[in-house]
Amino acid sequence: xxxxxxxxxxxxxxxxxxxxxxxxxxxAGLSVAARLRKARKDLDIALVEPSDRHYYxxxxxxxxxxxxxxxxxxxxEAKYLPGGVTWIKDAVAEMCPDDNALVTARGTRxxxxxxxxxxxxxxxxxxxxxxxxxxxxxxxxxxxxxxYVDTTWxxxxxxxxxxxxxxxxxxxxxxxxxxxxxxxxxxxAFRRAGVRDRVxxxxxxxxxxxxxxxxxxxxLNAVIARKGIDVRFRHDLTEIRPDAKEAVFTHLDTxxxxxxxxxxxxxxxxxSAPDFVKNGPLADAAGWVDxxxxxxxxxxxxxxxxxxxxxxxxxSKTGAxxxxxxxxxxxxxxxxxxxxxxxxxxxxxxxCPLVTGYGKxxxxxxxxxxxxxxxxxxxxxxxxxxxxxLKAHALPNLYWHGMLQGRM
Length: 408
Ligand code: FAD
Description:
The structure is a single chain. The strands form 6 sheets. Strands 1, 2, 5, 6, 7, 8 and 19 form a 7-stranded mixed sheet that branches. A 5-stranded parallel sheet has the order 10-17-11-12-13. Strands 14-15-16 form a 3-stranded antiparallel sheet, with no helix packed on it. 26% of the residues lie in helices and 25% in strands. Helix 1 (27-39) packs parallel to helix 9. The model is unreliable at 1-11 (pLDDT under 50). It has 10 helices and 21 strands. The chain folds into 2 domains: 3-121 and 273-346, FAD/NAD(P)-binding domain, CATH 3.50.50.60; 123-271, 3-Layer(bba) Sandwich (FAD/NAD(P)-binding domain), CATH 3.50.50.60. It is globular. The structure holds flavin-adenine dinucleotide.
């Protein structure tokens, strides 16, 4: 960011100071704040979070599939803020790590001893021409925002013929499996409604394969063959033409433009690090908070740590990954504060409950470099009802009552 574009910090701006500042009160921020609070009752912690509401996003796949109402995925942020933590209800606009400070959108300067950066990932709706205007209307939907997630089920239910398209963008995204999970649920829903022979289900992905870990990709390819889904790889959505109900793709290898008509289209938007991260001094070349992949400590500013979707950690961006990152970050931050060595190490663990239909889940669990890290003593690459129950009922409870309270 050019100096002239930076927010102006005047002497009259209020300044506050806290020993630890956590940025973002989502899955990662709340988990860390709760754990820090439990570990050190005397620590002065502030959390910067602009939203009153907290969302359990992993359930949005099943909301889009018509299993749950979206209201069950939202709670008041205040309910989960750990006691004794100061809530700065504002958004971070700029990081000034050379001064151990940040500036909020409303102009408060917050000075810190340590910062934990966890503002999640940014949804770049504007990067697909016409999408901002079209989303939520006339067959264009997305599970990626609370605002639109209920339109997914509406448009699946209303689709009786033609193309039902599901996209996967050419950027890192949160929950790499989510774009295809909703295609599998839609296929089931069309069969139940007796319209599948008239609806062509297309999964159009910018990627070159169905899933990065070969063990799970094998089952997913069999699921696609069984369901008769038309998969088009290297197809990057560049434009939605709502009037003509056309989706425009660029073939990433040939450069060719492919135009597909749709009755409905589920769009996973392009995503990136939040602007204040990617335009500031904490970013790596790709824009993410530049941390060591094992210690979660910033590579240039040792009193800054990061986890979750905004971090540079080369793992799958999931809440399951955050569950393993939070205890490592807290242990290392406290060790560093006490002058000790950083001995806790994150192994890249992530998990993706791949919903392949109603009552069917493959529980993918893996670490850095695709190393399989399964929990259960059976082959998790098989579709199972038990794993669906885990995804739909057990994990939401563990999230609200365990993870956010720093208990697991
Ligand atoms: P978030 O939980 O998104 O929280 C970020 C927080 O930062 C938000 O509260 C936001 O308001 C705040 N913030 C943003 N900007 C600022 C700012 N400038 N200043 C201060 N605060 C800011 N994960 C799984 O493990 N399993 C799944 O099955 C799964 N399925 C998913 C399906 C869908 C459709 C989606 C959308 C996500 C899914 N995920 C899943 C991913 C999971 O929800 C995320 O990986 C997880 O929420 C990441 O946590 P986070 O704290 O980094 O980000």
